[in-house]
TrEMBL record, chain A:
The protein's name in its UniProt record: Iron chelate uptake ABC transporter family permease subunit
Membrane topology field: Multi-pass membrane protein
Similarity comment text for this entry: Belongs to the binding-protein-dependent transport system permease family. FecCD subfamily.
Localization terms from the record: Cell membrane
Keyword RNA-binding: no
Gene Ontology cellular component terms for the protein in this record: plasma membrane
Bilayer-spanning residue ranges: 21-41, 53-73, 94-112, 118-137, 144-165, 195-214, 234-266, 278-298, 304-325
Main location: membrane
Organism field: Tritonibacter litoralis
Upper lineage: Bacteria, Pseudomonadati, Pseudomonadota, Alphaproteobacteria, Rhodobacterales
TrEMBL record, chain B:
A molecular-function term among this protein's GO annotations: transmembrane transporter activity
Species annotation: Tritonibacter litoralis
Gene3D superfamilies per UniProt: ABC transporter involved in vitamin B12 uptake, BtuC (1.10.3470.10)
This protein's name: Iron chelate uptake ABC transporter family permease subunit
UniProt GO BP: siderophore-iron import into cell
Family recorded in the similarity comment: Belongs to the binding-protein-dependent transport system permease family. FecCD subfamily.
Topology in membrane: Multi-pass membrane protein
Location, primary (coarse class): membrane
TrEMBL record, chain C:
Subcellular location: Cell membrane
Keyword vocabulary terms for this entry: ATP-binding, Cell membrane, Ion transport, Iron, Iron transport, Membrane, Nucleotide-binding, Transport
Protein name: ATP-binding cassette domain-containing protein
Family stated for the protein in its record: Belongs to the ABC transporter superfamily.
GO cellular component, one term: plasma membrane
Every ABC transporter domain range: 2-236
Membrane topology annotation: Peripheral membrane protein
Pfam families: ABC_tran (PF00005)
């Protein structure tokens, strides 16, 4: 049987390290990072250097988190136009954050340090995601559009609920929540960053052993199950991973809706492949590149600070509509 | 049908009366006769507030139902088609470029911007495959998101962010006599819609069928889009927009009595007004003496109702 | 009479109709036949102004279609499309009411109600009149739209594959009803048909199309030959004469 259908050319073993495009991206990212850190002779001041390195680390963390999360999400939903944010993941984070702050206030818990707070946020986020999306998935698994629309409405619901709770908070509590409401790349906490990097490293290691299965999952649930992949279990695990990555990036900089879309569109255009072994690294590299270059241009050239997020959102949204108008969205 | 009309009228009367006596300062019936201050409170604050909630809810529900018939999709409303966001961009522009214009003129600019935004959305939906009805609201939400990010960017650069917050959260606590009268215009527009109800129902059956029955489809489309844009702009400048009103109310009514607007429009308007008023009253009670905006309460309740509709919907609808 | 001259239509670079010249006679049942993708539905749509033609002219009783107002046209011709996707929840009786729109503009008088009731009875829908369209089966919905076209009471009836979804009984009764409207009320019917046997049994005239062009046209009794039909469908078709009625045999 296998002889009868064996392809004329044996399937090349995938080795991302041999892909020139990935190397090129890596080199470009390295160059952009160096430019970001050393622009304007920053090596003369250890203080500025440290600030910039921390910020760069943050950008890289957020970039790869968003790139990977979006690719995973698009694989799960079999759809190239969706991002976790459209499904309300970041709104859920905001709600969870508000609830935590609210509960802590009611129970008069001491204000936790940045790192424990970060860990608590992420854990609660993963649990909440699993609870909600597992329940919704059971109802709407067969209809991906329904699933997404439900996600969108959940997003609106979470946002409104969060807004409602925020009205009940006192000003000092509200300040804690407000910090997470808008995307900004300044003022990231160093220790949280370190924890975030570790959390993400764990997930990436976990993913690295599974990228081949992801290729099969991209065929869709029925097909994947027919090929013997325990789709439902993996789906939950991947949802949890997405939740973790989104909460990492949201906790660090705030919600970014369309960056992921921009990234995956570019990734698919560049890689022309459906193999996750290539897609995942490419997506995280491209995502980091956009953030680092964007931030360099904005900070150094235009001396604008936190409007990069808005511009990325705008470009990503325009790209979406462009893809739609070109009929790429089905 | 008469039962639905009857229930609507009774419900509105009960809510309206309740609303007059509910608030930070409690009123009772005898007081109104004896105390001129109480009567004044009703005339200046409570009555305008009640009317504003009713007019807002009714006209937004009507705008929602028109949008749904024109797009031929159950899951759209001005809030998910970029109409509101475009209106906000228009308002921002007028605030920045020509501050001090009368509110009515500001509203007209906002309505013109809303019109452009809605037409853009209609243009986009033409390219969508008709077999996937849920793609329409999805695209609409993202389109709205893009427009919203434009609005936020402008507002951010010009320190007008708090304006966006006000326009986005519908609230009636600031309504006094003299500050809500524009809403009557929205009410009048809704009544005008009732006189053309058949044409909108026909348009909802699809362009081909409508045209073959002699409907001037283009005219009805323009009329509908203009009405929706005007209503959205009016509501935004006076009280701020409320999510889900235009989505939930028409869907609920359609379940009960179908989409023949001639029959269902009064109930759509009544239910819209009633629900918004009820949410406003709830907002006055929950955290007495503070107030929770009606938009917040409707957002939570509306989302839950809408999710039930979505997940509970029969497969063929 | 509907005269069609030099009618062409293309969409996205694809020629759907290619220089159609033909005429459709009053007081007849004219069947549009031909293989899939021949352009039959597009031709029907062009006559009913559902598609905007690129070049050419359609005249109805000597008057250019472009000069007729939509209202007048709706009184002149009723069209029932092939795909009857309706998103809104409308009751059957309300749908038929909209069939009276070109005449009553929404203010239905006793005469209109009489016509609606008789259309309901005619199409076996009286029991279903208060049902919503989305609660009907495909065949029932088809009948509802046919009844609406009937209630429109236009001179011309344009039907795109009306037999789709209809069972034997309702298919036959529809064709008999069309025949009756032609002979008793001097209506004219243009109908896209896929079933050759229905065509042979009921059509007075045939317009046969392939690749956007008219292959042959004329009275059924003269043009519907075994050779012509076999050539049209590119498949062997035998005509059998059974007691004076012709049957097409192409199944095996």
């Amino acid at each position: 049987m296998s002889d009868a259908v064996s392809p004329s050319r044996p399937l090349a073993r995938l080795n991302p390290l041999k892909d020139q495009r990935l190397w090129a991206l890596g080199v470009a990212l390295l160059g952009a990072s160096a430019l970001f850190v050393f622009w304007g002779g920053a090596w003369r001041s250890a203080y500025i250097l440290e600030l910039r390195v921390v910020k760069l680390a943050g950008l890289l963390c957020v970039g790869s988190a968003i790139g990977v999360a979006t690719v995973l999400f698009q694989t799960l939903t079999n759809n190239r136009i969706l991002t976790p944010t459209i499904m309300g993941f970041d709104a859920l984070f905001l709600l969870m954050k508000t609830i935590l702050v609210f509960v802590a206030g009611v129970l008069a818990l001491p204000v936790l340090g940045a790192t424990p707070t970060f860990l608590a946020d992420t854990t609660v986020m993963i649990l909440a995601t699993l609870a909600i999306f597992a329940a919704v998935l059971r109802r709407a698994r067969h209809d991906i559009q329904l699933l997404v629309l439900v996600g969108v409405i959940f997003g609106l619901l979470f946002r409104t609920l969060a807004g409602f709770l925020q009205r009940l908070l006192d000003p000092s509590q509200f300040a804690i929540v407000q910090a997470d409401m808008f995307a900004t790349f300044s003022g990231m906490d160093q220790r949280s960053l370190a924890v975030a990097a570790m959390v993400m490293a764990c997930f990436f290691l976990w993913l690295a052993s599974r990228y081949a299965v992801l290729d099969v999952m991209a065929l869709g649930r029925d097909q994947a199950r027919a090929l013997g992949v325990p789709y439902d279990r993996l789906q939950l695990q991947i949802l949890a991973a997405i939740a973790a990555l989104v909460s990492v990036s949201t906790a660090l900089v705030g919600p970014l809706a369309f960056l992921g879309l921009l990234v995956t569109a570019l990734t698919h255009a560049l890689m022309r492949s459906h193999r996750h072994g290539l897609l995942l690294p490419a997506a995280s590299l491209i995502s980091c590149l956009i953030l680092v270059v964007g931030q360099t241009v904005f900070e150094r050239v235009f001396s604008l600070n936190s409007s990069l997020a808005v511009v990325i959102e705008f470009c990503g949204g325009l790209l979406f509509l462009f893809l739609l108008a070109r009929g790429h969205i089905k | 049908m008469p039962i639905a009309y009857f229930a609507t009228v009774i419900g509105l009367l009960a809510l309206g009366t309740g609303s007059l006596f509910l608030g930070a300062q409690d009123l009772s019936l005898p007081q109104v006769w004896q105390d001129p201050g109480a009567l004044q409170l009703i005339a200046i604050s409570r009555l305008p507030r009640t009317l504003a909630a009713l007019l807002t809810g009714a006209s937004m529900a009507v705008a929602g139902v028109i949008m749904q018939l024109l797009v031929r999709n159950r899951f759209v409303e001005p809030g998910t088609t970029g109409t509101n966001e475009a209106a906000m961009i228009g308002l921002l522009a007028v605030t920045l470029l020509a501050p001090g214009l009368p509110l009515f003129v500001q509203m007209l600019v906002a309505a013109a911007a809303a019109l452009l935004g809605t037409l853009g959305f209609l243009q986009l939906t033409r390219r969508l495959p008709p077999q996937q009805p849920l793609l329409v609201p999805l695209v609409g939400l993202i389109y709205a998101g893009v427009l919203y990010s434009v609005a936020t960017f402008i507002a951010y650069q010009t320190d007008l962010i708090q304006y966006i917050g006000i326009w986005m959260s519908g609230e009636f606590s600031g309504i006094l006599a003299g500050r809500y009268e524009l809403l009557w215009l929205a009410g009048i527009l809704s009544i005008l819609v009732y006189f053309t109800a058949d044409q909108f129902t026909l348009a909802g059956l699809g362009r081909g069928l409508a045209v073959s029955l002699g409907l001037r489809y283009g005219q009805v489309l323009s009329l509908g889009v203009a009405t929706v844009s005007m209503v959205s702009a009016l509501v935004i400048v006076t009280v701020g927009t409320l999510p889900f009103v235009g989505l939930v109310v028409p869907n609920v009514v359609s379940r009960m009595m179908g989409d023949n607007l001639r029959q269902s429009l009064p109930v759509v308007a009544g239910l819209g007004g009633g629900l918004v008023l009820a949410c406003d009253m709830l907002g006055r009670v929950i955290r007495h003496p503070y107030e929770i905006p009606a938009g917040t309460i409707f957002g939570v309740l509306g989302a839950i109702v809408f999710l039930t509709l979505l997940l509970g919907r029969r497969s063929h609808v | 009479m509907i005269e069609i001259s030099n009618l062409s239509y293309s969409i996205a670079g694809q020629q759907i109709l290619d220089g159609i010249n033909t005429h459709l006679q009053r007081n007849q049942i004219t069947a549009l036949i031909g293989p899939n993708g021949a352009g039959k539905s597009t031709l029907l749509g062009a006559i009913g102004r559902q598609v905007d033609i690129n070049t050419g002219q359609i005249k109805i009783d000597g008057e250019d279609l472009q000069n007729i107002t939509p209202q007048d046209q709706a009184r002149l011709m009723a069209i029932v499309a092939q795909h009857l996707h309706v998103g809104s929840r409308i009751r059957v009786v309300d749908l038929l009411g909209f069939g009276r729109w070109p005449h009553a503009k929404g203010r239905l008088g006793p005469q209109d109600h009489f016509i609606i009731q008789s259309a309901l009875a005619q199409f076996d829908l009286t029991d279903l009149e208060n049902r919503f369209l989305d609660e009907l089966s495909g065949g029932q919905r088809q009948r509802a739209f046919l009844a609406m076209a009937h209630a429109q009471d236009a001179d011309w009836l344009l039907l795109d594959e009306p037999l789709n979804n209809l069972d034997l009984k309702h298919g036959r009764s529809l064709m008999a009803h069309l025949r009756q409207m032609v002979s008793e009320k001097s209506k004219s019917v243009v109908v896209v048909l896929h079933d050759l046997n229905f065509t042979l049994a009921w059509a007075d005239q045939i317009v046969a199309m392939r690749d956007g062009q008219v292959v042959f046209a004329g009275p059924t009794t003269t043009v519907a030959t075994s050779e012509a039909l076999s050539d049209l469908y590119q498949t062997p078709i035998e005509l059998l004469n059974l007691n004076g009625h012709f049957f097409a045999q192409y199944h095996r």
